[in-house]
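Worked example 3 (structure in, sequence out).
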């Protein structure tokens, strides 16, 4: 019997044309009644960290401080409203990666989402795509509220590879028989660990590496405009 084949998909810039973390944060803050300057300030703080080569994992941890003391039910409800708004407007899903995902599913191969984003934001996407196996960064939730901390390392870089190894083992497979899709140089450890790596265009460093090694490179569609702030609907957690 041949080993079970899995297809691992990154999300931001791979399955989606935009960054779920930033686009949802903007929606969340607007729905909570904050003006656009609040989002811009927080976004620029994170961008400034990345600009001086703060490790991606550290920037990811800093992102989750935006949800300190947030009601988990409210975040989940807002994430679903946000995703529905994104898909209704169109352009947020990357056609080439979605087509690849559908091909794997049609062949009976298990699709696994692996992402540095978090479950509240990713679950609506996974449900939309019919994906049941989701490996993501896990924020700490205590007494129904986010603490702003994480339960483990962000699912980025080597941690993404570790998450994929665990998923493959649970499915009775090895990474050498699997596929992986990613768009950023930080996805390289996972891409190199599988038998069939596929890059999604966007990061020139990864694009060059992929082409040099003869990997398939899929296109990524342009990111659509963000949801108008007036359409960010407030909800109340239980």
């Amino acid at each position: 019997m041949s080993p079970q084949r899995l297809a691992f998909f990154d999300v931001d810039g791979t399955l989606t044309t935009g960054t779920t973390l930033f686009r949802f944060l903007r929606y969340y803050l607007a729905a909570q009644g904050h003006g656009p300057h609040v989002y811009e300030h927080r976004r620029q703080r994170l961008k400034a960290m990345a600009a001086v080569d703060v490790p991606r994992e550290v920037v990811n941890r800093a992102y989750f401080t935006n949800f300190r003391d947030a009601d988990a039910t409210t975040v989940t409800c807002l994430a679903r409203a946000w995703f529905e708004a994104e898909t209704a407007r169109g352009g947020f899903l990357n056609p080439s990666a979605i087509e690849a995902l559908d091909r794997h599913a049609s062949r009976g191969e298990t699709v696994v989402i692996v992402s540095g984003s978090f479950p509240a934001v990713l679950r609506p996407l996974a449900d939309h795509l019919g994906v049941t196996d989701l490996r993501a960064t896990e924020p700490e939730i205590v007494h129904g509220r986010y603490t702003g901390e994480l339960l483990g390392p962000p699912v980025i870089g080597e941690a993404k590879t570790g998450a994929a190894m665990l998923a493959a083992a649970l499915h009775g497979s090895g990474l050498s028989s699997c596929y992986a899709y990613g768009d950023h140089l930080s996805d390289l450890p996972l891409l190199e660990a599988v038998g069939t790596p596929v890059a999604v265009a966007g990061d020139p460093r990864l694009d060059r590496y992929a082409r040099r090694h003869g990997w398939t490179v899929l296109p990524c569609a342009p990111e659509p405009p963000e949801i108008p702030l007036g359409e960010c609907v407030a909800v109340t957690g239980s």
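Notes: Residues 6-231 form a domain with the Rossmann fold fold (CATH 3.40.50.1000). The chain has a mean pLDDT of 94.
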